């Protein structure tokens, strides 16, 4: 089987949910695939189906990205394989409950996966794609990056990091011909809720998007050249106004003297 002219998409967290759906949609678009996750059987089953249905190359790499050796293996593959043209950083976990109640080990695992692994893979992809002056990086964040009070503190903060990282990367890599997109899903029907101990039935049904609809919207945003895609947002001008309000703060975020409202009198 010849290599795809679109190159290879490396998708993390690819065994189920958003990652598996990205794999299916990208295979339909003609990408070869390199699928990364912990569940070998699910990866193998998905790879076999996608190769048969779409006539693309599909390779699987079982890896736990919270383990140094496994993460280093994927980093090396990103460095060495010039066929990789798209990185989808989807792997992530969530937590439930307050920070005061949190299990330190689970907090550490979340930070290692949602932040550290994503950053290291993004860094390698930035260097590799930037050197070739082509390629794209898709980082899956969450709307809780914008409404942190609504969900677990550590998870929300990790997704705010992903959003900030992605925006900065786009400003760095855009002039070099590399695209970066941050995808901010709302509540999406995947296994992440059960794994984090949240009862999906307790959530309003009108808030829950089917995973296929979410990924289709994210890819439509990618096709439209968006840096930030919020699949459930009806009016793109709302995001533009949000960005504009942030920009308005810019001239006053750093001065040599405190603002008058903070001066102590007497």
UniProtKB/TrEMBL annotation:
Domain Ketoreductase: 7-150
Catalytic activity: L-allo-threonine + NADP(+) = aminoacetone + CO2 + NADPH; 3-hydroxypropanoate + NADP(+) = 3-oxopropanoate + NADPH + H(+)
PROSITE patterns documented for this protein: ADH_SHORT (PS00061)
Signal peptide: none
Top-level enzyme category: oxidoreductase
Assigned keywords, A-Z: Oxidoreductase
Transmembrane segments: none
GO molecular function: 3-hydroxypropionate dehydrogenase (NADP+) activity
Source species, domain of life: Bacteria
Keyword Oxidoreductase: yes
E.C. no: 1.1.1.298, 1.1.1.381
InterPro entries recorded: KR_dom, NAD(P)-bd_dom_sf, Sc_DH/Rdtase_CS, SDR_fam
SMART domains: PKS_KR
Record-stated family: Belongs to the short-chain dehydrogenases/reductases (SDR) family.
Function: NADP-dependent dehydrogenase with broad substrate specificity acting on 3-hydroxy acids. Catalyzes the NADP-dependent oxidation of L-allo-threonine to L-2-amino-3-keto-butyrate, which is spontaneously decarboxylated into aminoacetone. Also acts on D-threonine, L-serine, D-serine, D-3-hydroxyisobutyrate, L-3-hydroxyisobutyrate, D-glycerate and L-glycerate. Able to catalyze the reduction of the malonic semialdehyde to 3-hydroxypropionic acid.
Protein name: NADP-dependent 3-hydroxy acid dehydrogenase YdfG
């Amino acid at each position: 089987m010849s290599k795809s002219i679109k190159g290879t998409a490396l998708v993390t967290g690819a065994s189920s949910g958003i990652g598996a759906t990205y794999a299916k949609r990208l295979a339909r678009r003609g990408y070869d695939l390199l699928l990364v996750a912990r569940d070998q059987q699910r990866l193998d089953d998905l790879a076999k189906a996608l190769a048969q249905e779409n006539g693309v190359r599909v390779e699987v790499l079982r890896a736990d990205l919270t383990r140094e050796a496994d993460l280093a293996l994927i980093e090396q593959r990103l460095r060495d394989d010039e066929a990789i043209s798209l990185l989808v950083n989807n792997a992530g976990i969530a937590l439930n409950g307050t920070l005061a109640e949190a299990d330190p080990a689970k907090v550490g695992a979340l930070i290692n996966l949602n932040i550290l692994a994503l950053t290291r893979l993004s860094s390698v992809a930035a260097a590799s794609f930037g050197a070739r002056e082509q390629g794209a990086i898709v980082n899956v964040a969450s709307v809780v990056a914008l409404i942190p009070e609504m969900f677990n503190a550590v998870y929300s903060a990790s997704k705010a990091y992903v959003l900030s990282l992605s925006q900065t990367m786009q400003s760095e890599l855009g002039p070099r011909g590399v695209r970066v997109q941050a995808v901010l899903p709302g509540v999406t029907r995947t296994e992440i809720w059960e794994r984090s101990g949240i009862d999906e039935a307790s959530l309003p049904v009108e808030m829950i998007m089917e995973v296929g609809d979410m990924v289709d919207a994210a890819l439509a945003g990618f096709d439209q050249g968006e840096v930030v895609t919020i699949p459930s947002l009806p009016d793109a001008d709302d995001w533009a106004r949000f960005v504009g309000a942030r920009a308005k703060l810019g001239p006053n975020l750093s001065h040599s003297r405190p603002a008058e409202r903070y001066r102590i009198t007497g």
